[in-house]
Design a protein that fits this description.
- There is one protein chain.
- With 147 residues, the chain is mainly α.
- The protein has one domain: Alpha/alpha barrel (Glycosyltransferase).
- The longest helix has 18 residues.
- It is elongated.
Length: 147
């Protein structure tokens, strides 16, 4: 896999694999599948989702995060499209994985403010935080049904 890094706001950003790109691809494939019933589109959506789970998560299945302006919202964009795969295409096998992300982020929230952080695997920092950096868990909570 080739990685291309670009400087943005003094930070090195890897633009090759992003959760929002995977999410929008999944959403497009799901919509094409629903419109055509061509199973190849469903297969594409499943492959993209498996890629995220196998290659864009840490060893505990936590969705990746990246630092930089607007990077924190990428999981929120992913959430709105992966739920279409889960619900519209009857793929509930992804629910427990995403619930684990929600539960971990919520356990690590800033309890004084009840906000979560884009790195769900560690405690939410205190102090000033961008809204984008707090958006992944609430976005997942809005679309992934509780068990």
């Amino acid at each position: 896999m080739h990685y291309h890094f670009q400087r943005q706001n003094g930070m090195d950003i890897d633009w090759t694999t992003q959760l929002y790109n995977q999410g929008t691809f999944i959403g497009s494939a799901v919509m094409l599948y629903k419109a055509t019933q061509d199973k190849a589109y469903l297969d594409d959506a499943l492959l993209a989702t498996e890629y995220v789970r196998q290659h864009m998560c840490d060893e505990n299945g936590m969705l990746e995060f990246k630092n930089g302006v607007e990077q924190g919202i990428y999981a929120a964009i992913f959430a709105q499209y992966v739920i279409r795969l889960i619900e519209d295409c009857n793929q509930p096998q992804y629910l427990d994985w995403l619930r684990n992300n929600i539960n971990t982020a919520w356990q690590n929230r800033d309890k004084a403010r009840n906000i979560t952080f884009k790195d769900a695997a560690r405690p939410c920092p205190t102090g000033v935080m961008e809204s984008y950096d707090a958006s992944a868990c609430p976005a997942l909570m809005q679309v992934i049904p509780a068990k």
